């Protein structure tokens, strides 16, 4: 059996692990940091051009092999299992939440308050923006106070987005471009964005991805990275204060040769699905319901946000394909009046090619070939389509959960997870009113420029999922404290998305990153004391 | 385009790499199918791009077929649990469908006038049950796949709008807030 020892063992190699290791290596130089990731390294940046071309031409996976065939769950669980995690192919959108997200209980009597103040979170938002390299422009909403400017000026609005902004603001709603972890100028060793239109596989590395950080940390020997190695169980010492003693892993190429990882501090950074999954798999005679689970809440309160979207056809001079990944956002509806029925959502607008492309039959069903295709297409280039979407705030019920499926196991015999999202009673009760509110906003926008709105598409899943190890001050109603330290286990932390009690109403990655950097400070201070 | 180039493309092999394992199969589209394929392109692609443009589109389509990888991982995207792979190469089906077009024309598809070729193609598409233009070739029918390959290209998008939009092309951020320039040689959209 192979054995490895380190000061800090990080289980999982995604964006949270990258940021945590980066900051720990700065704050505690010389600390031995070992990262164990089940997936492969995808460090060959040159190959991305070829993989991007295969994706465009054939619809192939631009991250070949970024999964483990028998390590799959049911529900909204990304298959991405690679060094860098899901953030290897994220869109780079780095919206902040708003103060309401941290004070839902005290402001609205809903869900729970987060165990940190907005002021403190905001400080870590600034740090996350610096480390990721976020470009953005000041919000037109006065309540969106920032203590520091964005590291880079915002992505210029394309011609198309400028037209859509002019249209959207006719309804009295202010819009701006989304902040993004994409360079608008050379930054931190990476070049400026070239708006290649394929952010899911950025061939220029202008969009931040964790492989950049890992490669740098490896080059400076600040970390050790064990890829292709799945941690299957965390084991505590038999008596005394509960502490993780060892992590049992297995290299995928040597399944019959178990590996032991010993460390002073263990950090689970395995994302919203696999973090709770590992804690539940780590049940023992001392912790029969899973590790860090005296509250019974590991795998509970799985969250995300619901959404409503549609397309609105308008009179506008739009040329589909200029920068389809960049969107407008209005944060006008992030704040809710406590005296009125609760509704919170973001509001996004993208250029769209829907109904603006070539087709085989015209509206009368006549077959189109050759010049007829182009002639028909051109008749539809004189109008434009705006894709509009609102992520709205829903709060999870305790029964919104990740469970282990005893009948579904991976090749090592470990039960695999199933996630079922369930809203709490208040979210369920206001759902219809929320959808009608959003419909009203869309209709308000559609009143301008001869807008014609298509039927609403009510999302059938929760996007930007998080939760499963929610943070809180009360060990009876949460899994970790505000720093991600497990209430029950002295040297065990969970960082990033699993700790979110609620998932806000816009993209969550910047918030995961900010919370992780705050955890890093705390872990660094502990390392100084240990 | 040189006929030799087309033939070289047509006779190339299709690589099959399910999850990294490589297999190869001889491309079933060969020299005998070229006249029909070129004639088909003339019937389903715009005349505006000219014979040279249509030949170039055929060459690019053949290159697409040649480089197709059956069993390759498809994009599993964000939050999608299912793994999917690309289906078998459509090359053999294309060959059979080109031969069918010829049969429907009494062996003279390539020599038919444009309107007559389009009538034959229309019948074949209807018989194949293809209702919509796919986002990329999907093996529905060689005619609609040739159309899909061209009409969904950035070049066709530019032609439709008469502007050099350059979808999916990497370029500097500067100027992105301006209208795309007028496509040289066109007046559409100007």
CA-CA gap between termini of chain B: 30 Å
Q: Give a quick account of the main beta sheet of chain B: strands, pairing sense, barrel closure.
A: 2 strands, antiparallel
Quaternary assembly = heterodimer
Spans of chain B of at least 5 consecutive residues whose pLDDT stays below 50 are 1-26
Question: Per DSSP, what share of the residues of chain B sits in E-state strands of 2 or more residues?
Answer: under 5%
The proportion of residues in beta strands of chain A is 15-25%
C-alpha Rg of chain A, in Å? 24 Å
Anisotropy-based shape of chain B:
globular
Helix content of chain B: 40-55%
Let me know the largest β-sheet of chain A: 8 strands, antiparallel
Entry summary:
Chain A has 530 residues and is an alpha+beta fold. Chain A has eleven helices and 17 strands. At the A-B interface, helix 2 and helix 9 of A face helix 5, helix 6 and helix 7 of B.
What layout of secondary structure does this protein have?
The complex is a heterodimer of chains A (530) and B (190).
Chain A: E1 2-11, H1 15-27, E2 33-36, H2 47-58, H3 99-102, H4 104-108, H5 118-132, H6 159-169, E3 176-177, H7 210-219, E4 224-226, E5 229-236, E6 244-251, E7 258-268, H8 271-281, E8 303-314, E9 328-330, E10 347-352, H9 371-379, E11 384-392, E12 401-409, E13 415-420, H10 425-446, E14 452-453, E15 457-458, E16 463-466, E17 492-494, H11 509-529
Parallel strand pairs in A: 1-2, 1-7, 2-4, 7-17
Antiparallel strand pairs in A: 3-9, 5-6, 6-7, 8-11, 8-14, 8-15, 8-16, 9-10, 10-11, 12-13
Helix pairs in contact in A: 1-7, 1-11, 5-11
Chain B: H1 3-10, E1 13-16, E2 23-26, H2 34-44, H3 50-67, H4 91-104, H5 114-128, H6 142-151, H7 154-161
Antiparallel strand pairs in B: 1-2
Helix pairs in contact in B: 1-3, 2-3, 2-5
């Amino acid at each position: 059996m192979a054995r490895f020892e380190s000061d800090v063992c990080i289980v999982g190699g995604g964006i949270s692990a990258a940021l945590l290791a980066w900051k720990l290596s700065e704050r505690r130089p010389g600390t031995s940091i070992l990262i164990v990731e089940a997936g492969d390294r995808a460090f060959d940046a040159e190959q991305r051009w070829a993989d991007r071309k295969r994706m465009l031409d054939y619809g192939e996976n631009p991250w070949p092999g970024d999964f483990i065939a028998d390590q799959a769950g049911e529900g909204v669980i990304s298959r991405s299992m690679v060094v860098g995690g899901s953030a290897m192919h994220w869109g780079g959108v780095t919206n902040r939440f708003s103060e309401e997200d941290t004070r839902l209980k005290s402001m609205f009597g809903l869900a729970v308050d987060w165990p940190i103040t907005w002021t403190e979170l905001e400080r870590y938002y600034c740090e996350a923006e610096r480390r990721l390299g976020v470009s953005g422009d000041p919000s037109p909403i006065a309540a969106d106070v920032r203590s520091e400017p964005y590291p880079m000026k915002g992505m210029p609005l394309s011609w198309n987005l400028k037209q859509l902004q002019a249209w959207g603001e006719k309804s009295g709603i202010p819009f701006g471009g989304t902040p993004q972890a994409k360079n608008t100028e050379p930054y931190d060793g990476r070049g400026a964005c070239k708006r290649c239109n394929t952010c899911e596989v950025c061939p220029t590395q202008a969009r931040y991805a964790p492989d950049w950080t890992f490669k740098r940390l490896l080059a400076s020997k600040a970390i050790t990275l064990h890829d292709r190695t799945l941690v299957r169980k965390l084991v505590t010492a038999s008596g005394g204060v509960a502490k993780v003693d060892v992590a049992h892993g297995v290299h995928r190429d040597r399944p019959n040769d178990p590996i032991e990882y010993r460390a002073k501090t263990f950090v689970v950074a395995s994302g919203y699905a696999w973090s709770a999954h590992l804690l539940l798999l780590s049940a023992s005679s001392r912790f029969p319901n899973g590790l860090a689970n005296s509250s019974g809440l590991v795998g509970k309160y799985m969250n995300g946000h619901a959404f409503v979207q549609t397309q609105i056809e308008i009179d506008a001079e739009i040329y589909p394909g200029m920068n389809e990944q960049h969107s407008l956002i209005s944060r006008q509806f992030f704040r809710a009046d406590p005296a009125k029925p609760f509704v919170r959502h973001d509001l996004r607008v993208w250029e769209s090619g829907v109904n603006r492309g070539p087709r085989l039959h015209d509206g009368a069903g006549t077959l189109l070939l050759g010049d007829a295709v182009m002639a028909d297409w051109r008749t539809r280039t004189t109008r434009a389509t705006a894709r509009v979407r609102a992520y709205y705030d829903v709060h999870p019920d305790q029964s919104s959960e990740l469970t282990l499926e005893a009948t579904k196991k991976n090749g090592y015999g470990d039960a695999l997870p199933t996630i079922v999202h369930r809203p709490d009673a208040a979210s369920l009760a206001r759902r219809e009113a929320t959808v009608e509110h959003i419909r009203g906003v869309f209709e308000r926008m559609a009143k301008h420029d001869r807008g014609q709105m298509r039927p609403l598409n009510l999302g059938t899943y929760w996007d930007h999922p998080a939760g499963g190890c929610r943070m809180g001050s009360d060990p009876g109603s949460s899994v970790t404290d505000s720093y991600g330290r497990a209430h029950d286990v002295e040297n065990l932390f969970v960082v990033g998305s699993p700790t979110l009690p609620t998932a806000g109403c816009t993209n969550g990655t910047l918030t995961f990153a900010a919370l992780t950097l705050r955890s890093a400070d705390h872990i660094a201070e502990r390392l100084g004391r240990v | 385009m040189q006929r030799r180039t087309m033939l070289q493309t047509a006779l190339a092999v299709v690589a099959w790499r399910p999850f990294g394992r490589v297999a190869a199969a001889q491309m079933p589209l060969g020299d005998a199918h070229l006249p029909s394929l070129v004639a088909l392109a003339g019937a389903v692609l715009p005349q505006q791009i000219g014979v040279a443009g249509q030949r170039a589109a055929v060459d690019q389509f053949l290159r697409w077929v040649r480089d197709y990888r059956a069993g390759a991982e498809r994009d599993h995207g964000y939050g999608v649990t299912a793994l999917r792979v690309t289906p078998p190469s459509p090359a053999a089906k294309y060959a059979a469908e080109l031969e069918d077009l010829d049969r429907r024309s009494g062996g003279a598809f390539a020599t038919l006038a444009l309107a007559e070729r389009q009538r034959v193609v229309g019948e074949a598409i209807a018989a194949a049950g293809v209702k919509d233009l796919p986002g990329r070739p999907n093996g529905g029918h060689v005619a609609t796949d040739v159309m899909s390959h061209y009409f969904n290209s950035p070049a066709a998008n530019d032609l439709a709008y008469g502007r050099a939009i350059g979808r999916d092309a990497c370029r500097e951020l500067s100027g992105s807030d301006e209208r795309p320039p007028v496509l040289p040689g066109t007046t559409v959209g100007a």
